[in-house]
Design a protein that fits this description.
The complex is a heterodimer of chains A (about 350) and B (about 180).
Chain A lengths: L2 H37 L15 H11 L10 H17 L9 E2 L2 E2 L8 H9 L2 H11 L3 H32 L4 H11 L13 H24 L11 H4 L9 H26 L15 H26 L7 H29 L3
Antiparallel strand pairs in A: 1-2
Chain B lengths: L11 H4 L2 H19 L26 E3 L14 H5 L5 E7 L11 E9 L8 H5 L5 E3 L14 E2 L1 H8 L14
Antiparallel strand pairs in B: 1-4, 2-3, 3-5
The chains are: A mainly alpha (about 350), B alpha+beta (about 180).
């Protein structure tokens, strides 16, 4: 038994979950409220603690103390299962994402498996079950419509999500997410290859399909995490809240946290694939001292936070798509763009030497 | 009759939507930036900031009883305000001033003077009708209480809100 591996892995899991992910989830709810308020010329929650910073704690107390009401007409087993299924996949996606270089010689990734990105897709698409089951088990029409919408939307966007990352792995050569980061350290970030040979035209030519790929992937992640402008499953104005109408108290909160956790893990994957992961030009990795290891982790989460801000920014700018527009966009545009993009990258890789 | 509204014909860059999306995002980030830099005017943060200082002179807040400069409660318990009060919020129990008192010729004073602030509609008719200028509408507007009983302002409370009024009613002074 490799006790060192087990101990460090457990420490990483607990540290990630308790110190990083869960506070980040609750504070992104707070940030969402503040950012949305600022964009609408309001102040947002500013009462609990300095600048409202303890608002998430107050929220959690409120939600825990609320009556947990479940209607009599629900399918109890699935009704209880659905909130867990909404939150768990979103969190365990983080397991394969390298969130730092090394700290005291320990690689800062919980599970460096060789099918990294496949694991991400496999787990992330489990998230749809949470919503579909919630819609089905609630046994009422608006949640049902929300669940159905969610499943078709996720299937449509899963496709462009998968196709959009193929160019990245065409370059990298294997599916390990740590090797994606290593590639980006050597050759520059996927969307901005500023490291190494500046004058190589092929490298900059390659950045164009990478940017397309980045945009398609990001938009698909928006759709996967049910964020506006793709929040059709919960469209308040049409479905009165969609799949979580029949939920209350902490079960409702789990859906809410699941959405934000999915946003964080989605951003983490985007950062790893396209924005250089924990790498920042000029900062060495953790083998040069533990302080750099910590800085690398901080850089990674700063990037994630910046992307989350973009998520919020988009949410409070764009209106929701109509359902047929959503499907048209997914199947007629993003799918084709991603497909053509793969060929583009393949041609560039085949004919340029760098 | 149904009217068919012609859909506008969009040209290619309008159909790409991306310029419009970028323009929209520029607008929201501008608002965000202005808020961060403190250029945006926001609503008054009520319990911390109040508009008391900019309240107009004629503001009609909670009614209150006043004392005159001699310390006498100006009210003579004539009960005109009790009669005029549209929601019947005022209740007065009159008492007699003993003949030994300095103000014996006033004859009556309010033994009890209750205004039920749950009922009061801040119309100001009591102030208008008062022949003694004894009741005034002050600028207090945040009147709260946990029970209905707490919401009744008794005489002491009314006098506390009212304070001393330096006024023109001098007919009860000894000199006259």
């Amino acid at each position: 038994m490799d006790y060192f591996l087990i101990t460090t892995s457990l420490l990483k899991i607990v540290g990630m979950l308790v110190v990083v992910i869960l506070p980040m989830v609750s504070y992104s709810v707070y940030a969402e409220r503040r950012v949305s308020a600022f964009m609408q010329d309001r102040l947002g929650p500013n009462r609990v603690g300095p600048a409202g910073l303890f608002q998430p704690i107050a929220d959690i107390f409120k939600l825990l103390l609320k009556e947990d009401f479940s209607p009599r007409h629900v399918n109890t087993f699935y009704y209880w299962l659905a909130p867990c299924l909404a939150l768990v996949p979103a969190i365990i996606t983080i397991a394969v994402v390298p969130f730092g270089s090394t700290l005291f010689g320990v690689p800062m990734v919980i599970a460096d498996i060789n099918v990294g990105i496949l694991y991400v897709f496999a787990i992330a698409s489990l998230g749809v079950y949470g919503i579909v089951l919630a819609g089905w088990a609630s046994n009422s029409k608006y949640p049902f419509l929300g669940g159905v919408r969610s499943s078709s939307q996720m299937i449509s966007y899963e496709l462009s999500l998968g196709l959009a990352v193929i160019p990245v792995f065409l370059l990298v050569g294997n599916l390990r997410l740590t090797s994606v980061v290593r590639y980006q350290i050597e050759h520059g970030w996927m969307i901005a290859p500023f490291i190494g040979d500046w004058m190589n035209l092929g490298k900059w030519l390659l950045a164009i399909p990478m940017i397309i790929s980045f945009v398609v992937f990001t938009i698909a992640v928006f759709a996967e995490t049910n964020r506006l402008p793709f929040d059709l499953p919960e469209a308040e104005q049409e479905l009165a809240g969609g799949y979580h109408i029949e939920y209350s108290s902490m079960k409702f909160a789990l859906f809410f946290l699941g959405e934000y956790a999915a946003m964080i893990s989605g951003s983490a994957v985007i950062v790893t694939l396209f924005l250089g992961g924990w790498h920042f030009p000029g900062i060495p990795d953790g083998s040069h001292g533990w302080i750099f290891g910590l800085i690398n982790i901080a850089v990674f989460f700063a990037k994630v936070a910046a992307l989350i801000f973009v998520f919020m920014w988009v949410r409070w700018t764009l209106p929701r798509f109509r359902y047929d527009q959503l499907m048209r966009l997914g199947w007629l545009f993003f799918f084709e763009i991603a497909l053509v993009n793969i060929f583009l990258v393949a041609i560039i890789v085949a004919y340029s030497r760098f | 009759m149904a009217i068919t509204v012609a859909r506008p014909k969009l040209n290619w860059h309008e159909r790409m939507y991306l310029p419009a999306i970028a323009a929209g995002m520029a607008i929201t980030i501008k608002h965000f930036k202005n808020m961060i830099l403190g250029r945006t005017k926001v609503t008054m943060q009520y319990p911390e900031e109040k508009w008391d200082s900019s309240m107009p002179e004629h503001y009609r807040g909670a009614p209150a009883l006043v004392r005159d400069t001699d310390g006498r409660v100006r009210c003579v318990a004539c009960q005109l305000c009790e009669f005029i009060c549209p929601p019947r919020a005022i209740k007065i129990v009159a008492g007699e001033i003993p003949s030994t008192d300095r103000f014996a010729k006033v004859e009556k004073y309010p033994e009890e003077f209750d205004i039920d602030m749950v009922r009061c509609i801040f119309c100001g008719m009591c102030e208008e009708v008062c022949p003694e200028q004894a009741i005034f509408l002050r600028k207090d507007y945040a009147i709260t209480g946990f029970t209905r009983d707490e919401m009744v302002h008794h005489k002491e409370k009314l006098l506390e809100i009212g304070g001393v009024m330096h006024g023109v009613v001098l007919k009860w002074n000894e000199k006259k």
